[in-house]
From TrEMBL, chain A:
SMART domains: PTPc_motif. Keywords: Coiled coil, Hydrolase, Lipid metabolism. InterPro entries: MTMR7_PH-GRAM, MTMR7_PTP, Myotubularin, Myotubularin-like_Pase_dom, PH-GRAM_MTMR6-9, PH-like_dom_sf, Prot-tyrosine_phosphatase-like, Tyr_Pase_AS. Substrate binds at N275, I276, C338, S339, D340, G341, W342, D343, R344. This is Myotubularin related protein 7. The keyword Cell inner membrane does not apply. It comes from Equus asinus. Residues 551-660 are annotated as: Disordered. Transmembrane segments: none annotated. One of its GO terms (cellular component) is cytoplasm. Residues 566-596 have a biased composition (Polar residues). CDD domains: PH-GRAM_MTMR7, PTP-MTMR7. Residues 521-551 form a coiled coil. The keyword Coiled coil applies.
UniProtKB/TrEMBL annotation, chain B:
It is a peripheral membrane protein. It is found in: Cell projection, Ruffle membrane; Cytoplasm, Perinuclear region; Endoplasmic reticulum. It comes from the Eukaryota. The keyword Endoplasmic reticulum applies. Pfam families: Myotub-related (PF06602), PH-GRAM_MTMR6-like (PF21098). InterPro entries: Myotubularin, Myotubularin-like_Pase_dom, PH-GRAM_MTMR6-9, PH-like_dom_sf, Prot-tyrosine_phosphatase-like. The keyword Endoplasmic reticulum applies. One of its GO terms (cellular component) is cytosol. It comes from Equus asinus. Belongs to the protein-tyrosine phosphatase family. Non-receptor class myotubularin subfamily. Keywords: Acetylation, Cell membrane, Cell projection, Coiled coil, Cytoplasm, Endoplasmic reticulum, Membrane. Residues 123-498 form the Myotubularin phosphatase domain. This is Myotubularin-related protein 9. GO terms for biological process: negative regulation of autophagy; phosphatidylinositol dephosphorylation; protein stabilization; regulation of phosphatidylinositol dephosphorylation.
Length: 660, 553
């Protein structure tokens, strides 16, 4: 590749994020798609893979006696600090990565070279896994009130909308086109979700071009049509998800919001979710908190509060809850918009759908939800997640926030979701990885032009293939929590929203719980299944024997030795913290500590003496851990998510304290 | 004293009880000597059965003839009673006030409680020091049991039996006791079988401003070191606080006199600072405003998690010295009855697998808290709602339980007990029908004749029916040292305690139940399978088994 100035640098050190005293010596490779660091340690040869598209920023820091430090921040919240011995090499790596991390053409992205060794048919089938027309059928459409409209065939009306759209039956093409002219980027009101139990619907659009006084008869008719499509209610809610001030400011630019006087029977409601710039800065601030080296509790909580991140999450949730309640309890239809109707609107519609419909809480249903509210309705993935080099002001963690909302709900309703936290994390990873074609481009139209489905693979098929890894063991289709609407408490629960360290600190394994209940239960369930099968086989065998016995024939005892029973026992494959694995380490500590303990400890503990708090303990306490990371058990994980390999290293947690 | 004197109105009808997450209930309120009971008239079931000693504070309000009493409990629950009639309301309020603040311990409920269950094992004898010594140090001949404190004369807050280095005689112990705060001479707290290193604990040395020293003290703690080894003294106070203590006759070990020891100062807060932290935290948790930012800033301002972090960090450091550095340690603060015990007991949770079992944890509480003289009576007299500023209340034990919960959260499969076990211990430390947490030390407990007059908490807990509730289905014995993370990202608010009454736990309880079902079903299948394999054995030809086989199929 012409952009790689130096493909290989030796004697590079990868600094441990938490304990700067610990660094791994190895070789750095630059390839067309990845940055790869391979440790020298002969027994592990641990590899860290970073996709270029995951790189968010690269920072060259001041050269020190040990070399030239290079800080790589990733969009999946991994942070890599490398020390490169020669300034020149560092500069070459830096310049190369700057270019590699900011591709200018879609064709440079990984998905165009990624080949999972599937044939054409398998690829096509993969793309067919999620089918939106099926989804609308599942919602009960078309029916007496809603019909499929071909008004946007060939993207004639709105280029950021899909071609297949559901609109009220009474909305003629004339009304739709008229309405579209009165809406930002011609994003006219269209159906997002239909609650067939009571005919209430969630529709979405962009803001009206109302300015201070403009009106549009067709737009008014359009809203009227939405209201009429729900015979159970004599009004619709119009929810503007922006703060009122922002919406008012838009009026000066000829945009704005619906005037209740002009539209018959609407109830207008502002729900203040901040714009993409506020969200980008908020995430930035929160990540700074996550990056702090040994922060105090106050530093952390204060920084978290100051970032405003959880406040924004709550605002999105509140909007979703409001809409879900309007639909389910008031049986009223809701039209949701923000400015362009592709960020906040997508967040809010999908949260509301998730609360209303258990289908979206299943593995496949969740893929459908993202496909529907995000991909098909023209959420600008390319701009928001910076897949191609572009305006940094367009970047914003909008879908990250939605994914976090789902996690927050999972924490409240542990049995309600078919999928687990890992599923969310892997989706987040792949939104940025550009390894699959699903999230490329800014609209359906662009994807079609690029022939994404013929040239790349679908993430959904990949996730579906590995679905065993993404199952929530607590989910049961017949569980009461699984059914119907998720009802959040009516009392305000600020404490409900928590910092998601599993996402934002996910590469700091030491900060995560050392034993995962989810993984444990998954292993138990897997074993249970095996036991069931074995039991069935055994029963068949016993039945045969019984017959034989009745015929007074002898049975050889040889054949009937219990199969390796202990082979399945939970302790074997689930806890993973067996002392055997560990004794190796244990020995080395023992042989070290008695003789050298004095010196080592004197050094460290004296430092400790000087400061009242122990800066390293948060790192050190990591060491023995007692428990090997359960994620190494997971069969998929690392396979298609190379950077996750970094989490697979079992020995990295070893005594920081002693090697220091 | 007759309780009847305090109860002017024993019974009021048409009282309405309000609790979060429950519909209001109308019923009859009854006051007895130890309980406040409300039973709804409809179906004669009691809706509320509250120990007076669980009441932390009450407020009363009047709107016309309707009086309202708001009862704030030591377990942080807040309930409201609407009582018709001003006089009745005032009577009830004053009775509750009097009954919840009885001066005399012997009037407390444990002295009146008659158990309705069969005692399988008397908890008062479940954890005898001699047995514990056997369990922990049978392999070593460097330690002995000393009965020097038999009459509580040497140290009033120590138990009659303590473990000390074998080479130190009782006479020396008496001398050391005069050099240590409260007579708390260094004793063995924990013996790490893996490498023979130990945790000792004591009160601060009484060096005073003129640097007094005590040869026997130096000899005693040096006797715990093996040849050529050095140890660490962890002072749970900051250096400044420790220096200030000299003015009051206290102090710390001077390097010159303890050349084989390296001193580390940490700063774990004590007394009213912790109490205020608890008050602020509970206030924040009860605050029902919409503003997200206020919640986090209030959580931060309470400093509760800061205390958790500091205590855990110190305990990890202690465990690290023992297990990683192969060095013995001595831990003390001022008295050696609060922060010292937090650190010694948490270090054992980290180091010692047995202390992560139910029985082992009970033994730990018995040894490191009850026998070690943590003044439960003083510390747990009041909780987060009390207005009167008394000097001795402090949620030291609750902080310890919270730290255990933090470790349990990080290692959910390494503990035999679940969160409910910790919550239960918290409740009983503050208000209980059992005598276990009464008194401030063994000496007081002896004088109160608790063993004869009250029931031990362990007698109740250690019955299969109760144990079932407290056993974690996830437990898989883990013989390793477990190192928790003490980074802020890893420390969480203990919702099971602090948000217990402010949020519905329905969905979380259902999840727990589901988890139990998954594991139970697995075990059931395993049992079934091995049972059936039994039929394939040669003995199956015996007619009896054949019969069984036929019957089973």
């Amino acid at each position: 590749m012409e952009h790689i100035r130096t493909p290989k640098v030796e004697n590079v050190r990868l600094v441990d994020r938490i304990s700067s005293k610990k660094a791994a010596l190895g070789t750095l490779y630059l390839t067309a798609t990845h940055v790869i660091f391979v440790e020298n340690a002969p027994d592990t040869r641990k590899e860290t893979w970073i996709l270029h598209s995951q790189i968010s920023t690269i920072e060259k820091q001041a050269t020190t006696a040990t070399g030239c430090p290079l800080l790589i921040r990733c969009k999946n919240f991994q942070l890599l600090q490398l020390i490169i011995p020669q300034e020149r090499d560092c500069h070459d790596v830096y310049i190369s990565l700057i270019r590699l991390a900011r591709p200018v053409k879609y064709e440079e992205l990984y998905c165009f070279s990624f080949n999972p060794k599937l044939d054409k048919e398998e690829r096509e089938q993969g793309w067919m896994l999620i089918d939106l027309s099926e989804e609308y059928k599942r919602m009960g459409l078309p029916d007496d009130y809603w019909q499929l409209s071909d008004v946007n065939r060939d993207y004639r009306v709105c280029d950021s909308y899909p071609t297949e759209l559901y609109v009220p039956k009474s909305a003629t093409a004339h009304i739709i086109v008229g309405s579209s002219k009165f809406r930002s980027r011609r994003r006219f009101p269209a159906l997002s979700y239909y609650y067939k139990d009571n005919h209430a619907s969630i529709c979405r659009s962009s803001q009206p071009l109302s300015g201070f006084s403009a009106r549009c008869l067709e737009d008014e008719q359009m809203l009227q049509a939405i209201r009429k499509a729900n015979p159970g209610s004599d009004f619709i809610y119009v929810v503007d998800t922006r703060p009122k001030l922002n919406a008012m400011a838009n009026r000066a630019a000829g945009k704005g919001y619906e005037n209740e006087d002009n539209y018959s029977n609407i109830k207008f409601q502002f729900i203040g979710i901040e714009n993409i710039h506020v969200m980008r800065n908020s995430l930035q601030k929160m990540l700074e908190v996550c990056e702090l080296k040994s922060p105090s509790m106050s530093d952390f909580l204060w920084g978290l509060e100051n970032s405003g991140w959880l406040r924004h999450i709550k605002a999105i949730m509140d909007a979703g809850i409001f809409i879900a309640k309007a639909v389910s309890e008031e049986a009223a239809s809701v039209l949701v918009h923000c400015s362009d109707g592709w960020d906040r609107t997508a967040q809010v519609c999908s949260v509301a759908s998730l609360l209303l419909d258990p289908h979206y809480r299943t593995l496949k249903g969740f893929m459908v939800l993202i496909e529907k509210d995000w991909i098909s309705f023209g959420h600008k993935f390319n701009h928001r997640y910076g897949n191609l080099d572009g305006d940094p002001k367009e970047i914003s963690p909008i879908i990250d926030q939605f994914i976090e909302c789902v996690w927050q709900l999972m924490e409240q309703f542990p049995c309600a979701f078919e999928f687990n936290e890992r599923f969310l994390i892997h989706i987040q990873h792949h939104i940025y990885s550009c390894q699959f074609g699903n999230f490329l481009c800014n609209s359906q139209k662009e994807r079609q032009e690029l022939k994404i489905q013929e040239r790349t693979y679908s993430l959904w098929a990949h996730l579906w293939k590995n679905r065993a890894d993404y199952m929530n063991p607590l989910f049961r289709a017949d569980h009461s929590q699984t059914q119907g609407i998720l009802r959040l408490p009516t009392t305000p629960c600020n404490f409900m929203y928590k910092f998601w360290s599993g996402m934002y600190n996910r590469f700091e394994k030491g900060l995560q719980p050392r034993q995962s209940v989810t993984d444990y239960l998954m292993a138990v369930k897997e074993e249970t299944q095996q036991l069931e099968e074995e039991l069935e086989a055994l029963e068949e065998r016993l039945e045969k024997i019984q017959k034989v016995q009745l015929n007074r024939t002898k049975v050889k005892s040889k054949q009937s030795e219990p199969s390796k029973h202990s082979g399945f026992s939970t302790s074997d494959n689930s806890t993973a913290n067996t002392p055997q694995d560990y004794s190796g380490n244990m020995q080395s500590f023992l042989s070290r500590s008695p003789s050298q303990g004095d010196e080592d400890s004197a050094l460290i503990l004296t430092q400790d003496n000087l400061k009242s708090s122990d800066p390293d303990l948060s790192a050190n306490s990591d060491q023995e851990s007692g428990v090997e990371d359960l994620s190494c058990r997971s069969p998929s994980g690392g396979e298609c998510v190379p950077s996750e390999d970094s989490g697979k290293d079992r020995d990295s947690d070893e005594a920081v304290f002693l090697t220091a | 004293m007759e309780f009847a004197e305090l109860i002017r109105t024993p019974r009021v009808d048409n009282v309405v009880l309000h609790r979060p997450f429950y519909p209001a209930v109308e019923g009859t309120l009854c006051l007895t000597g130890h309980h406040l009971i409300l039973s709804s008239r409809q179906d004669n079931t009691e809706e509320l059965w509250l120990l007076h000693s669980n009441i932390d504070a009450i407020d009363k309000r009047f709107v016309g003839p309707l009086g309202t009493i708001i009862i704030k409990c030591k377990d942080f629950r807040i309930i409201q009673l609407d009582i018709p009639g001003m006089e009745e309301c005032l009577n009830i309020a004053s009775s509750i006030e009097a009954l919840s603040t009885l001066d005399s311990i012997t009037l407390m409920y444990p002295f009146f409680y008659r158990p309705m269950f069969e005692v399988i094992e008397d908890g008062w004898h479940s954890f005898l020091p001699e047995q514990e010594f056997e369990l922990y140090s049978c392999s070593c001949d460097e330690w002995r049991l000393s009965y020097v404190n038999k009459e509580f004369a040497v140290c009033p807050s120590y138990p009659p039996i303590v473990i000390v280095p074998k080479s130190i005689d009782d006479e020396a112990l008496r001398k050391v006791a005069t050099f240590r705060h409260g007579g708390r001479f260094p004793v063995l707290s924990y013996y790490h079988k893996k490498n023979g290193m130990v945790i000792m604990r004591s009160g601060q040395p009484l060096t005073g401003t003129n640097g007094r020293r005590c040869k026997e003290d130096e000899k005693l703690i040096n006797a715990t070191l093996r040849a050529g080894k050095r140890g660490y003294i962890i002072d749970t106070r900051s250096l400044t606080v420790a220096q200030q203590a000299r003015a009051k006759g206290g102090g710390f070990e001077q390097e010159a006199h303890y050349p084989q020891w390296r001193r580390i100062h940490k700063s774990i807060e004590r007394y009213h600072i912790l109490q205020e932290s608890l008050i602020k935290l509970v206030e924040a948790c009860n605050d029902q405003t919409h503003n997200m930012d206020r919640w986090l800033s209030k959580l931060e301002a309470s400093n509760w998690l800061t205390h958790i972090k500091e205590i855990l960090t110190t305990a990890c450091l202690a465990a690290q010295c023992i297990d990683r550095e192969g060095a013995s340690i001595l831990i003390h603060g001022t008295e050696g009855t609060d922060s010292t015990l937090q650190v010694t007991s948490l270090a054992q949770i980290i180091l010692e697998p047995r202390s992560r079992t139910i029985r082992g944890f009970e033994a730990l509480i018995e040894r490191e808290w009850l026998q070690a003289g943590h003044p439960f009576q003083q510390r747990c007299a009041q909780s987060a709602y009390c207005n009167s500023k008394q000097k001795w209340e402090s949620p030291v034990f609750l902080l310890f339980l919270d730290c255990v919960w933090q470790i349990l959260r990080q290692f959910p499969c390494s503990f035999e007990f679940n969160e409910n076990f910790l919550i239960m211990l918290f409740e009983h430390a503050y208000a209980s029908q059992f005598g276990t947490f009464l008194g401030n030390n063994e000496s007081e407990r002896c004088k109160l004749k608790l063993q004869q007059k009250t029931m031990s908490l362990w007698s109740w807990v250690n019955r299969p029916s109760e144990l079932r509730k407290f056993t974690s289905p996830l437990f898989e014995a883990n013989n390793l040292v477990i190192w928790p993370s003490v980074a802020p990202q890893s420390l969480h608010l203990w919702e099971g305690i602090f948000l217990r009454w402010n949020r519905s736990s329905k969905y979380l309880d259902e999840a727990y139940e589901e988890m139990v079902n998954i594991i139970e079903y697995n075990k059931e299948l395993q049992a079934k399978l091995s049972y059936k394999y039994g039929f394939l054995k040669p003995e199956m030809h015996s007619p009896c088994l054949k019969f069984l086989l036929l019957w089973f199929l």
